[in-house]
Amino acid sequence: MRRVVISGMGAVSACGNGAQALISATQAGVSGVRPVRFPEIDVQRVGTAAAMSPEAKAAIDEEMAHRMREPVANYALLAAREAVKQAGLETADFGDACGVSIGSGFGGAQTLNKNYLKFGAEGSMRLDPMSVPKIMNNAAASWVSMEFGARGPAYCMATACSSASQSIGLAYQMVKVGAMERCLAGGSEAPLESGVFRVWELLRVMSATKNRPFSKDRNGMTLGEGAGVFVVETAESAIARGAEILCEISGYGTNSDAGDLLRPDAERASACMNVALQDAGLSASDIGYVNAHGTGTVANDVNEVDALRRVFGDDLSELAISSTKPVHGHALGAAGALELVSAIGALHEQSAPPTINFTEIDSKIGIDPVSNTARAISTDAVMSNSLAFGGINVTLILRAYG
Amino acid sequence: MSMDKETLTKELIALVADEGMVDVSDIAPEKRLEDLDIQSADFVMILMAIEEKYDVYISVDNELSEVETVQDLLDLVITKIEEAQAA
């Protein structure tokens, strides 16, 4: 079987443009969370999100302006450009040999929201004529394919908070079996629109204060936005091009709970991690860092730690586990990609990024998730989990290439 | 807005019955919500109604995860409403 590696990565997030900005922020524990206000929500209950600054958004809008594109596609394009540049891909490397696998949970939220407001509030039927191509979930994947002339298979996983992780996992599998030589894989999400924000408020899983995963006083998650894209290819092709290999994707597991749409299932999440370990040919004890899904909701945190205990044993004190969501927010369909960038940062810097905003160990959970400051690790294998609504679990395992 | 606890309790019981779609006569403080067939999706409806009526945001988290009986729910919601009114 062919070995599959990552030879380029790119990200845009509330932590700034570029994968390195995200790695630096997660390592230093500098949060991109800022106040957000939506004039259309008359009484807004939750006042923060890991949003890009208004200046950064305006700059992207200007640089990327296209009447058939909105932020969700722009973010993906920016991340893909960075990844492609780092991997040193040239025109001849695309074509039929290169696929695209870029997921999104919501697709074109901005266009959808503007249309609803125009129709609902103004009663106007003069909606955006380019709405369909802007809203469709695969727009980001297609724009990336067009930008580079990547004419292999193009996929768009729309599996809520597991979209990006499954997209990357699918790319890994396709490259591994030889269905494509390389793939631009990741996820993109631009959900910080009034209507979307309000329905998250109504589901009551957002914190009105601060996002504190695994902490006793946690009370919900904080939304984020952005995109992460990777060049996933065979080790052979990366080496032939003289590209620097960032890491190997050594294991992928995905399964579903087939249980409850919203309530997670620890047994299934643990089974998913075991599938990935088996795929990687590793034991649990080989993993030196876990980037947890760690949303900071009681349902996730209790479930995920239960699942981790089933895989890694009752005593989790020796394993570095953290959630970087308080830094880059919960970016839904982009979450797994932003978190994989953070996990690569951990592998490269041999440093587990901290779970910031942590105040106190919760006796129900009983772990200290690398609280508040980064912790040195010594490992060549890291894991990243995504556990989505819909009962869709994903685990990716990365190894130092050698 | 300030009101005595008894009135507030009565209002809240009516609201829980309404949003949880159970007969108000079935609701007693010691009853377990599970036995009344009030599930997590009903909680979201109850909390939305509380937000509209009392102007307080309660997330489906932490303290709420420990609520088992009608009385637990009332205690939590009344505390939150009082906190919001004091703020």
UniProtKB/TrEMBL annotation, chain A:
Pathway(s): Lipid metabolism; fatty acid biosynthesis
What Pfam families does the database record attribute to this sequence?
A: ketoacyl-synt, Ketoacyl-synt_C
An MF annotation (GO) of this entry: 3-oxoacyl-[acyl-carrier-protein] synthase activity
What's in the keyword line of the UniProt record? Transferase
Q: Which InterPro entries match?
A: Beta-ketoacyl_synthase, Ketoacyl_synth_AS, Ketoacyl_synth_C, Ketoacyl_synth_N, PKS_Beta-ketoAc_synthase_dom, Thiolase-like
Q: Provide the Ketosynthase family 3 (KS3) domain boundaries.
A: 1-400
Name any Gene Ontology BP term: fatty acid biosynthetic process
Q: Could you tell me which SMART domains the record lists for this protein? A: PKS_KS
What SUPFAM superfamilies would the database entry show?
Thiolase-like
Q: Which family does it belong to?
A: Belongs to the thiolase-like superfamily. Beta-ketoacyl-ACP synthases family.
**What is this protein identified as?**
Nodulation protein E
TrEMBL record, chain B:
User: InterPro entries from the xrefs?
Assistant: ACP-like_sf, PP-bd_ACP
Listed PROSITE patterns: CARRIER (PS50075)
Record domain Carrier: where: 3-81
Record-given protein name: Acyl carrier protein
